[in-house]
Amino acid sequence: MRRWFILTLVLVGLCLPYVTHAQLKAPNVTVDGTATLYLAPDQGVITVGVTNQASTAAQASQANAAAMQKVVDVLKKALDGRGRLETAGYHLRPVTTYYKETRRSQITGYKADHQVRVTSRDPQALAGILDAAVAAGANQVSGPHWGLADPSQAERQALAAAFADAKARAQTLATAAGLALGPLQQMRTGGGVAAPVPMLRSMAKASENTPLQAGEVQVTAEVSCVFALLPSGPGQRK
């Protein structure tokens, strides 16, 4: 029994270096693939608000509420169910004045700020919505920001294109090395972020149609892949 045990250990010891050596000899190639898609936005976002100042906090708050309600009513009508409104911020703060004679600051009034975020599913309508808000009394405007309502489909398309780029790179390297491209062994993804491309924005008077030029939305994806490399010859994968 002991002889069989020793013989088994010797055979295992002989096989292990062979397997390890074969694994180390298996060639592969690591490549990165990237893809960038430029898509037309399907929604636009602006932030509009009203600022009021009065001698007391109550007066500032009441005046702001009345003015903001007019803006909100107009925005709802302009959106016509093709977007949404949400509060972006509300602030009520004292206004102070510094007097050199006494070297002290004194509260001389209160300022109320109220902003709403306007999301339109019709980017072309955003200019008219902006003008309507200003005409209704909005005295704060920021934006626009262009985007995709559901970027997941675009991100999947970018990932597929990035993988195709990585595979093409691997094929080029395999061919240059006189080998055939083998199966995919590992893959790691990255990117997939949707962001607006810098766009031209111009503003005009509220009585005119504000010319907003919608930019494109940039969606990027990155993949890192490891492909096996096979001997090139008859019967091998090309």
Automatic annotation (TrEMBL):
Residues 1-22 form the signal peptide. It holds the Pfam family SIMPL. GO terms for biological process: DNA damage response. It comes from the Bacteria. Keywords: Signal. The keyword Transit peptide does not apply. This is SIMPL domain-containing protein.
